[in-house]
Write a structure and sequence with these properties.
Elements: H1 2-15, E1 25-28, E2 32-34, E3 37-44, E4 49-55, E5 61-62, E6 68-71, E7 75-85, E8 91-102, E9 106-112, E10 115-117, E11 121-129, E12 135-141, E13 147-148, E14 154-156, E15 161-171, E16 176-188, E17 194-196, E18 200-201, E19 206-212, E20 218-222, E21 228-229, E22 235-238, E23 242-252, E24 255-267, E25 275-276, E26 280-282, E27 286-290, E28 298-302, E29 309-310, E30 316-318, E31 323-333, E32 337-348, E33 354-356, E34 372-374
Parallel strand pairs: 2-8, 10-16, 18-24, 26-32
Antiparallel strand pairs: 1-3, 3-6, 4-5, 4-7, 7-8, 9-11, 11-14, 12-13, 12-15, 15-16, 17-19, 19-22, 20-21, 20-23, 23-24, 25-27, 27-30, 28-29, 28-31, 31-32, 33-34
Length: 390
């Protein structure tokens, strides 16, 4: 009896049409990845199939031939494809644990402090919730062109300003998480540099206007004469002569900068010293005089009685008469400061000199004459004989 049943079943199987054989199959462009995972499915069904039904294993279905499906939750999913025909039973293909979706990490971060002085450290702390895989990489962007691969780095900003900060983490499955915080770090860098309306004065009282390079924050000025100010751009009057050191301190959100300029303000009638190429010269021998000023608004030289004057800064002067001359210089500097200087110059007379010769007459054109200087001692001599010889 058993042999008869077996032969009957085998005979029926041989008589089934080819269209009813199990020919349903499917594939996917990806079968694993990070949530949310988008998968495109491709079906393989007999040509005479009238419809299909997909079961994606996540409560989602489709009747499209080649659908796409987004898996938003981590997990393992079994996918089933069923093909239906006008006659005959449906055909089904099921693939167990076909789609594997990994949980992606999540990330946040903090910093301490978020307002900092230029050059001071900022400690960054990552706050990561791990997904399916272990975290393998940290990528920090501090917003100033630098970054770090540490989990909790420390960074120093070299310039003032507001900085965006971003952190990206990646796990062993290639899943990433990203966090971006705009204008997250405020770096303060006070600038205490300053200028003034003038730095030199002739007579007290003398007023100076100071100008700060930075107009916000708390300001403190010390003018070098035991007087101070907290005005941003103060005006100060000096009531005595001398050289004064000025200090400016500025503080912004606890950050401080200090600039001190020694002997910045100078008040008092200035003096000068005349320089010359020589202190003693002969008549009409040129002497170069130097005023030694690059700021003078006017220059006046007086070379003594009968020797004239000059308005050049560095004139060349030859004295026409022997004698002792008191050369004076007057410079007019900014702020109407008048600088006077003088120098003694000695002009020597030409040395007394004569010469003689016993050979003043000759008949022969070729004649040798002997010349003897008179009154010339310790002098360098240059003779000219009148025949183009010397």
């Amino acid at each position: 009896m058993k042999k008869t049943v077996c032969l009957w079943v085998c005979w029926l199987t041989l008589l089934l049409p080819a269209s009813l054989e199990a020919q349903v199959d499917f594939s996917a462009d990806t079968t694993s990845g990070c949530a949310p995972l988008l998968v495109s499915f491709t079906s393989q069904v007999p040509a005479n199939a009238t419809s299909v039904l997909w079961d994606f294993g996540n409560s989602g279905t489709s009747t499209q031939l080649n659908p796409g499906r987004s898996y938003t939750q981590p997990g393992t999913y079994t996918v089933t494809l069923t093909a239906y025909f006008a006659s005959g039973p449906p055909q089904t293909q099921t693939k167990t644990a076909f789609i594997n979706v990994f949980a992606a990490p999540s990330v946040d971060f903090s910093a301490n402090p978020t307002t900092v002085c230029k050059g001071d450290p900022v400690a960054f702390t990552s706050n990561v919730t791990q997904g399916t895989g272990a975290i393998t990489q940290y990528i920090w962007d501090f917003g100033d062109g630098t970054g770090s691969n540490q989990a909790n780095p420390t960074h120093r900003y070299s310039q003032s300003g507001f900085y965006n900060v971003a952190l990206t983490v990646e796990d062993a499955n290639g899943c990433t998480a990203f966090e971006f915080k705009r204008v997250f770090i405020n770096v303060e860098a006070p600038d205490a540099s300053f200028t003034s309306s003038t730095t030199n004065g002739c007579f007290p009282p003398f007023q100076v206007r100071f100008q700060s390079a930075q107009t916000f924050g708390n300001h403190f000025w010390s003018f070098g004469n035991n007087l101070t100010s907290t005005t941003i751009n103060p005006s100060h009057t000096y009531n005595s002569t001398g050289s004064f050191t000025v200090t400016h301190i500025i503080e912004v959100n606890g950050c401080r900068d200090t600039v001190t300029i020694p002997n910045y303000i100078n008040i008092g009638q200035p003096t000068a010293q005349i320089q010359s190429s020589a202190d003693t010269a002969c008549v009409n021998q040129g002497i170069r005089f130097f005023c030694n000023s690059t700021t003078a608004q006017s220059v006046l030289w007086n070379f003594g009685p009968g020797q004239g004057s000059s308005t050049q800064c560095d004139p060349n002067k030859g004295f026409s008469t022997p004698g002792v001359y008191n050369v004076s210089l007057t410079l007019t500097e900014p702020n109407n400061c008048i600088i006077n200087a003088s120098k003694r110059i000695v002009i020597l007379p030409p040395p007394p000199i004569d010469f003689g010769t016993p050979d003043t007459f000759a008949c022969n054109p070729t004649h040798t004459a002997t010349f003897t200087p008179v009154g010339a001692t310790n002098l360098s001599l240059l003779w000219s004989f009148g025949d183009n010889n010397s």
